[in-house]
Amino acid sequence: MRIVSYNVNGIKARLPRLIEYLTEEQPDVVCLQELKASDDTFPEADIRAAGYGAIWHGQKGFNGVAVLARGSDPIERQRGLAGEPEDEHSRYLEAEVDGVVIASIYLPNGNPLPGPKFDYKLRWIDRLRGHAAELLAEERAVVLAGDYNVIPNDDDVYSVRAMQSDALMQPESRAGYRALLAQGWTDSLRTRFPKGGVWTFWDYQAGAWQRDAGFRIDHLLLSPIAADRFADAGVDKSHRGREKASDHAPTWVRLR
Predict the structure, then answer these.
(1) Which of 7, 182, 206, 236 could cross-link with 147 by S-S, CB 3.0 to 4.6 Å?
(2) Positions in the chain short of pLDDT 70
(3) How many CB atoms lie within 10 A of CB 114?
(4) Is the pTM for the entire model greater than 0.90?
């Protein structure tokens, strides 16, 4: 089973690239983030025509997550995280596909900091960790896939100095991510590339793509039972270089 995390940065603008990716790569499951589309404008017909069933949790102009499954409809388990009833952001969607529990996650960016956006980011990580503990208690194959907006290590970024004041690399952001891993989750891309130096995001500004000035913020975390099935992980970097592509590359894990 090949499971992909793909921040499309606007599904309307990126629909040709998404359909192209589904057609060429034919992954089994794709977790989308940053749809920037309301529920009623999600392009379900186009995705079904490409051979994928879908569930989605949209939000007009911002956020939004979806789970696509090749040849079947994902079974929805949960949308949103508990712990903050007033939070109306569409950032979490959980489904079951072929016996595997898969979540599409769009963790808050947190900039500018200090301030309410950074505080919200840290609270959101805490809420995710609380739910992740419940998932581990189920003792099933679980994949938490998404744009975490956290650069976990210094070797996950092209320049520590360039990003040192960004919310993605603050000690509190990294501590939240490490606390999640400490529950027993496996960072699949880190497992495959233990020395780092693998990027999943390149900004549109300052020629970042051309300079390969990127960093790793898209992660697929595996529960112990899923980690026992780990076969490979990688980044489909070439898709970032295509015309009108997202600033993220599809990032994937393959389970036996």
Answers:
(1) 7
(2) none
(3) 10
(4) yes
